[in-house]
Design a protein that fits this description.
The chain has 138 residues and is an all-beta fold. The chain contains no helices and ten strands. Strands 1, 3, 4, 6, 7, 8, 9 and 10 form an eight-stranded antiparallel β-sheet that branches. Strands 2-5 form a two-stranded antiparallel ribbon. Strand 7 and strand 8 form a beta hairpin.
């Protein structure tokens, strides 16, 4: 006679505490540009000037799931839409480590950074958008 057992893992729930804010950017005329925000909130701009006039920050997420379980964090690129051509958001990074896992209480608290890519002669104005973040058990 054989025996069987199964453990059903908890559904993963991801809650955004704060979105990525790239702040106030002044692109160089006649060039494309890029602004990068790291998970720690550090900003690096190429072919543009990043002004400190608006708060900038990485995204902040809190996820819940099965205690001590490992997860894979993945992203689907997004875009920012506004008064001009859409700007791509890509090259996402997180600070949850090489092998992210829920703590003993089933919580994973982490930050996300990314690049926003400025188009040639990007029109001034306000831009907003979305991207997709997915957590799957490993």
């Amino acid at each position: 006679m054989g025996h069987a057992q199964v453990v059903i893992m908890e559904n993963i729930v991801v809650t955004e505490q704060a979105g990525i804010n790239f702040g106030l950017i002044h692109p160089q005329s006649g060039q494309t540009g890029k602004v990068t925000i790291s998970p720690s909130g550090d900003v690096n701009a190429s072919n543009s000037t990043h002004n400190n006039g608006l708060p900038t920050h990485a995204a902040h997420f809190v996820a819940s799931g099965t205690p001590a379980a490992n997860v894979l964090i993945s992203f689907m690129n997004g875009s920012l839409n506004g008064t001009g051509d859409p700007m791509d958001i890509n090259n996402f990074t997180h600070d949850a480590g090489v092998t992210p896992s829920f703590d003993g209480s089933g919580v994973l608290d982490f930050h996300v950074g990314a690049d926003v890519n400025l188009n040639l002669n990007q029109q001034s104005g306000s831009y907003n958008g979305t991207y997709t973040i997915t957590l799957n058990y490993q």
